[in-house]
Design brief:
Radius of gyration: 14 Å
Distance between the termini: 9 Å
Family: Belongs to the NipSnap family.
InterPro entries: Dimeric_a/b-barrel, NIPSNAP, NipSnap_domain
Pfam family, one: NIPSNAP
Protein name: NIPSNAP family protein
Structural class: alpha+beta
Shape: globular
Domain NIPSNAP: 3-102
Order of helices and strands: EHEEHHHE
Largest sheet: 4 strands, antiparallel
Length: 107
Amino acid sequence: MFYEIRTYRLKNGTIPQYLKVVEEEGIEIQKSHLGTLVGYFFSEIGTINEIVHIWAFTSLDDREARRKRLLADPRWQAFLPKIRDLIEVAENKIMKPANFSPRSEAH
């Protein structure tokens, strides 16, 4: 299992707007292609204006194929402009759990 951890720093004060549009439109499009959502978070204490979402994949090839399908979806292409200008910095990590780590039972 591999975990993709996507972290976005948003423009000041835009977390409510970002979360609303993702909840109303974006998350269902993502889930239909990416599959297993481990969690979707926003900062309350610490670094402000931060969104973190974590997706689980069986392999890096699985991730690549799923992301390719997402990017090709016309619904996703129409959705992206609604969040693109709210994001100031984006970071992406791929993490692999240690043998003793609890894991998502997805896939």
